[in-house]
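User: Run a structure prediction on this.
Assistant: Running it now.
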Amino acid sequence: MSSTLLVEDTGVPFDELQAEQIARYQTAWAQTGWQREPRVSVSRSVLPIVSDEDRAYFGGERSSEDQVGILEGVRARFGKSYVGEPDALAEDLAKDAAVQEADTLLITVPNMLGVDYNARLLENVVRHVAPAIGWVHPDQR
């Protein structure tokens, strides 16, 4: 599981740096001789704007680019938040190198907005973003 923070900054965009780490992990796994495939998950903040309420909360979101900062004295790179119309989010996620390399995408939610809001947010990801990327619900396979 790799989150939206890496305590490494080589100047490479977050998703590419994370994809490099995934590749190194998979190589190390293969070198051990284990027979099964390793599972890899990454997390992203995905906030589709499909209502006035979403727009009120996130319409002015400015973290659509990687952020670099110092965390406990270490230079760190923070992944961007994916905020916007579902078709634009789908396009951006389809270009995210680490999302494409991972087996699982963990969607982070703004827990301070409560269960009901986050249930709708996740429903909007499932209904509007996932199909545009080609993700299929396991029940639909």
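The chain has one domain: 5-140.
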